Amino acid sequence: MRIDYAIRHPITLEAQFEVEGFTVLLGASGEGKSLLLRAIAGLVAARGEPFGGMAAQDRAVGYLPQGYALFPHLNAWQNVAFALKGPQRRDQAMSLLERVHMADFAERFPATLSGGQQQRVALARALARKPQLLLLDEPTSALDPVTRDDVIAELITEVHDFGIPALAVSHDPHLAAVADRLVLMHGRRIIQIGTSETVYGNPTSGAAARLLGYRNVHRGYVEGTTSAPRLAWPDGGVSFPIDDQAVIGTYVDWMIDPAAICLIDAHDALPNAIPASVEVRHVDRRITQLGLRCGQGRLWVAIPDGMQVPKSPAVHLPPRAIRCWAHDPSRHPSETPLLPGEKLPIR
Amino acid sequence: MSATTYRARVPALLSAFTLLLLATPFVGLAVVTHWRSFGFAEGDGGAIAVSLGYSMLALVLIIALGTPLAWWLARYSIRGKWLIDSLLLLALLTPPLAMGLLLASMYGPYGPAGSMLEHAGLVLTNSAPAFVMAQFYAALPYYVIAARAAFEGVPRELEQIALTLGHSPWRSFVHVSLPLARLGLAAAIALAWVRALGEFGVVLIVAYYPQGIPVKLWVNLQNIGLDAVYPLLWVFFLVAMPLPLILGLSARRRHLI
Fold it and tell me: Which residue ranges does the record assign to the ABC transporter domain (chain A) (predicted)?
């Protein structure tokens, strides 16, 4: 289903993209993602298709807002039956609850259900409307981090089972990683669209990489000569050689994989070594990452199991592992790293 | 006594003192009532019927006209809303006697609205409609302010969700806004009921007749004395109490509507 919407108030926002299967619109807070969902549901004045010009009650959408908004005065089956009519409404509600594995909780009131259970009741209620499109606003925001992955897996299975296209808006890269289709929004524009694999494998800008949850995405400035380009990193107060074909004299967003960074001893006095201090040690199952302070900036470095951290640590950034994207200040003026003519604080 | 027990007892003792203050006049009433010669003055029965019947009618009118206004004020932001707030406050602030005089000057036989309505056959002085009007004016602002607060407490998102589930705005109001505002609305109705039933000042000016209980209490005091006041007052409590009591209790259950 193609979404093509333009909102003028309270912010200006335009969005065109296809929703296929479980589609996630990923964007930072304040981008207007929730507003877009509310516009599609007919709750905010906007122009666009599908459902253009229809009243909210006539739009065949199933809308799950943040926190799910179950009616607190109705129990689970009454919530689901709210969208149903006729003498069979209780049976229909029960069969929908069964499909989301919540039949045993039919008599329970929302306040006694967990976040995941509430989400499933809200999903059953939205599906009772027989929607052509499901709209989910930050579906992972009210979930317990421990059970979140399981709840997401169940949600996606249910969405696929019902065969209704679903658009979820989120700032959670965890949710984006399991989407059939991923739409990235930055600066109130769509900046990248594709399958999760293609978008994760090839973010087309620093903003996209940040949204996807990549670590070590920074801003910099390309200097030196075409044959020996160097990247100045103002936050780190250093510059280092790069292989990337970036244009000399331009601002860039750059990124390096934490696993590609070499942790060395500052006493080894290797060329282009960047002195650092250990700020935080992040152990996530079998992977250990160190948060290293370099000047005003921070670099994350993945270290092998059992590796001893040198007393005076430093890092070496292999030029081949550094990826640069041209930074377009006209598109995101608020992100221009330095004013024109401003001197970079390089040692 | 440990510090914790002491701290827990202070509010309980203060509350007991406040309740005692509140109960004092009624304890006094129980003491001063001549139970052996408990009897009613002539016309007390009629006053009870007038008060109950017309207060109920006034209450229906207040709910019918006040609820849409309260909901509109709770849900829509309009320019100059402070003017509406001021009008409600003005109606609340006006001393009852003054409100009676204002109503008489407007709806009385020589008032601009009164003379017109009289031509249409509606007499708004010393008549049943005048009695209902007096109670309506006395209780409406209390109802609107309390009901507005009740509607403001209903999350707007839930009303909107009802729309996305295919319900019309009216059905959303009936099935979501009303049940969720039921506690506050019950309080608003109870408040309007006691204000209407107990109203004396406004009624005294525009509807001395037909005599309701508050006016009859005054008449009994003037004509007979205190002994004729207490029995009617006991009946007043007896007939006025059930509605707010039942409303309060039933609204605390999950299903009112």
Answer: 1-212
